[in-house]
Design goal:
Order of helices and strands: HHHHHHHHHHHHHHHHHHHHEEEEEEHEEE
Structural class: alpha+beta
Helix content: 55-70%
Radius of gyration: 27 Å
Largest sheet: 5 strands, antiparallel
Number of helices: 21
Length: 561
């Protein structure tokens, strides 16, 4: 019976992980996003640098508050293996850190979780689509996921009973890797120092303090405070209450269901702040019962993320409390929650009835979490992929303003420099054309179409060099949009005729909340029409909706050529 139990739990977890990477492969794209451009710019400078010393200096060059040496090393490795940087490869490597975290906790739980469903809950929480900002964002997942893995490993070796020289060396190794993966690794220094002090490891503590001092000096050599980074003293003076709210919200981020299209950010902030406060109260309870004497590792991990939450509240609250529920930080809250689950598994008496209740709660909780919190946030991944390819399509048509991010003029210069240095090339035009393909001409009998009970709009018309890109939506009232087809009609004003083009469907997650319905996600449509297929004179567009035999025509809009 026990073996069957383990097999079922293991199988569910493996299937879930496979599903996660299946979605990742379907939504990732070899296209830089936001800070990817900055790292690519720096890496291109590394390749072009004349001297070894200059290359090393550029590897350690500051990125915002961080020294992301780890990211740059993978850029270099991928460049050497692939002859150019590939952001699909880099995003995959970053997401593999989640696999490392999963395996790490699997081994940690193994002894304490006998006859307990824990692999499936771990898989649901760690391979979490609510981490969407990181998942297909190479620079972000290489930093934000991997620093957590290195921190866990460093704490693992320092909290082993009777620390040995080997464990101390491994602790230092993973500390160094964490620090030069993301600046949050610096917080490990305080936690590790306290652990050595409490364990009365005077010799190792003295050595550790010297090594830490050296690491801090190296980290802050030629350090420049980012221009948008607020002054800590000013934040404490002016934003004391907001800083606490930010910290609690940051800590409870794992329950922030903030979807850009489908719910209110204030609602998410209230939930995450409340959950974070409860997490903090639970942490105080662990201090009261001296849980660190029973499981120093779990307590140390929770202490690390409490520290990160409160320091982040001090340093970032001035920038707006909504930043506390940013998806890219959610992995921290996730690990805190996993440690709480570990506590309950560890302290639940292993009687048959207790195990039944514990397994039922874990299974119901994680299944509910997946469908209520994680699964819906896949919409970001699909939306980002469309944005990425649309930006590249525009770029190839001499308009760089649609590249995905906030500093498009800078991105254009980075791409030109990378192309000239052969460090990175955008996806080919043929590949972009496959993602946003040309619309085919079709024949349509308008006699069967009516104009009642239909809603729609054309949101975007962009003239490219050899085609026109049109984006919109339409639906027939009360019908599910899943199986509908949308056709574009363009009216030729000279010959008084209409030309029809078949649409490419895409998801519109904003329509359901706007119209307060639950079946409009598939109402989006894209048309890309070659110039030679367009009439010389046209000024009217129509959307034709065919949904299971019901046909409607939406009289869209007049346009100026």
């Amino acid at each position: 019976m026990r073996n069957k139990f383990i097999i079922v739990d293991f199988s569910l977890a493996i299937l879930f992980i496979i599903y996660f990477f299946y979605i990742f492969v379907g939504t990732t794209s070899n296209i830089p996003i936001n800070d990817d451009y900055s790292v690519l710019d720096n890496f291109t400078d590394i390749v072009n640098a004349d001297s070894f010393f200059e290359k090393i200096k550029l590897f350690f060059k500051q990125h915002n508050e961080h020294r992301i040496l780890y990211d740059k090393l993978w850029f270099f490795i991928d460049y050497k293996l692939s002859q150019q940087v590939n952001f699909n490869h880099l995003s995959l490597i970053g997401n593999l850190s989640l696999l490392g975290i999963f395996i790490f906790f699997l081994l940690k739980f193994k002894e304490k979780a006998e006859n307990t469903i824990y692999l499936f809950p771990l898989a649901v929480l760690i391979f979490n689509f609510s981490f969407h900002e990181n998942l297909t964002f190479a620079m972000a997942n290489l930093s934000n996921f991997t620093v957590v893995l290195f921190s866990l490993l460093s704490l693992h070796f320092i909290t082993k009973p009777n620390i040995t020289k080997k464990n101390f060396i491994l602790t230092i190794l993973f500390l160094i890797l964490a620090i030069f993966t993301q600046g949050a690794g610096l917080f490990l220094i305080l936690i590790l120092s306290v652990i050595l002090f409490l364990n009365k490891e005077k010799k190792y503590l003295f050595q550790f303090l010297i090594i830490s001092a050296i690491l801090i000096v190296i980290y802050f050599i030629d350090y420049q405070k980012p221009p948008n980074s607020p002054e800590i003293i000013e934040t404490l003076r002016s934003f004391k209450f907001r800083s606490f709210l930010f910290s609690f919200s940051f800590l409870g981020n794992i329950f922030a269901k903030n979807l850009i299209f489908t719910n209110d950010i204030n609602e998410s902030l209230m939930i995450s702040t409340g959950v974070g406060f409860l997490f903090f109260v639970f942490y105080l309870y662990l201090i009261k019962i001296k849980y660190f004497r029973k499981n120093l590792f779990v307590f140390s991990v929770m202490s690390l993320f409490i520290l990160i939450s409160f320091v982040t509240g001090i340093t970032r609250s001035q920038l707006g409390i909504d930043m506390s529920i940013a998806s890219r930080y959610r992995i921290n809250s996730c690990i805190f929650l996993i440690c709480m689950i570990f506590f309950f598994i560890e302290n639940t008496p292993k009687t048959k009835i207790n195990l039944w209740y514990l397994n039922s709660v874990l299974l119901v909780f994680t299944t509910g979490y997946f469908f209520a919190m994680s699964f819906p946030q896949q919409e970001y991944l699909e939306f980002r992929k469309k944005q990425n390819y649309y930006g590249v399509l525009s770029y190839y048509n001499r308009n760089h303003k649609n590249l995905n991010g906030f500093e498009q003029d800078y991105y254009k210069n980075v791409l030109l420099k990378a192309n000239a240095s052969e460090t990175y090339f955008l996806p080919t035009e043929d590949l972009v054309n496959k993602e946003i393909n040309y619309s085919n001409k079709i024949d349509v009998d308008l006699n069967n179409y009516e104009s009642n009970s239909v809603s729609g709009n054309i949101d975007k018309i962009e003239k490219l060099q050899n085609s026109v890109y049109i984006e919109g939506w339409a639906f027939i009232d009360s019908l599910n949009t899943k199986d509908q087809e949308i056709t574009l009609a363009i009216e030729d004003t000279i010959q008084n005729r209409k030309i029809f083009f078949k649409g490419q469907k895409f998801k519109r997650y904003d329509l359901n909340p706007y119209f307060k319905k639950a079946n409009l996600e598939s109402a989006g449509c894209i048309f890309r029409i070659k110039n030679q297929d367009l009439p010389v004179n046209y000024n009217k567009l129509y959307l034709l909706v065919d949904n299971k035999g019901k046909k409607r025509i939406f009289n869209s809009k007049k346009i100026t050529q």
